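Input chain follows. Return structure tokens only.
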Amino acid sequence: MKFKALFLLLSTLVFSVHFKSQAQNPIIKHMFTADPAPLVYKNKVYLYVGHDTATVKDTNYKMPDWHVFSSKNMVDWEDHGMQLSPKAFSWAGGDAYAAQCVYRDGKFYWYVSTGHQKNNESKGGMAIGVAVSDSPVGPFKDAIGKALVTNEMTTDKKHGWDDIDPTVFIDDDGQAYLFWGNGSCKSVKLKKNMIEMDGEILVLDIKNYIEGPWVYKRKDNYYLIYAGAGTKPEMIEYCMAKGPQGPWVYKGIIQGNVPNSFTTHPGVIDFKGRSYFFYHNGSLPTGGSYRRSVCVDEMHYNEDGTIQKIVETTTGVSPVKGR
């Protein structure tokens, strides 16, 4: 009987370890994270996320700050802690909504969306700021001492939260572009210093667009991926173009509604020969639409560059090796 009991105990432990190793998604389990923004730098992936702190009874977001994680193999993630909050911006007065960090000329620029105080520069509403650091894990500080985009700069939508979810893309010729928006997708060129707009703000005609744009180039194609209306909001849809300013051609839905969250948010990278799609859902215990969790799965393309449907898994991705 003792041997049988010992065998059952060992079997249970082996099963538990195996199950734990197989259940990678969500990739961050000790806190609720949202709005993933991956960055590849020096053979490592840095992941910038929002932080959900709402209780299970709350009916709206509570997002006090942004956190950074990193991984060399896409499986083991190092926690670098809270590296930025709206308190770092003297003009800010709101939650830490979606953000993205990009690298240029030895600096890391972290574009964030948060509320704006009512003052001489703005009457309030959501705004976009930018912080800067010499390191991908901080410390970060406000790069310009004021918002890069305020609600008054965009007038195509009348609600005060249309200036959220910034994504920045730097083209092969060095020209940088900022995309953002809720209800409509806006775009503007950035100067080389990355903290000033260079030209007028454009409003793009993007089918089913809601929010959360992510723009990148792969081979000869430009991609605009976003949270869209789909057949039931929010789903991830995308457009393709032959240039960073379009015209953007709608290509379809690549991800349906995610478990236990009415929002999702894309982040895309190529790393060590594979393509990866980051998103969030509400699948952790006690999770939900205001207590979300970041996941990652592999992404695959067809020969013509179009994107195959994202297959969501609980196992996540396999460890990657190589230089």
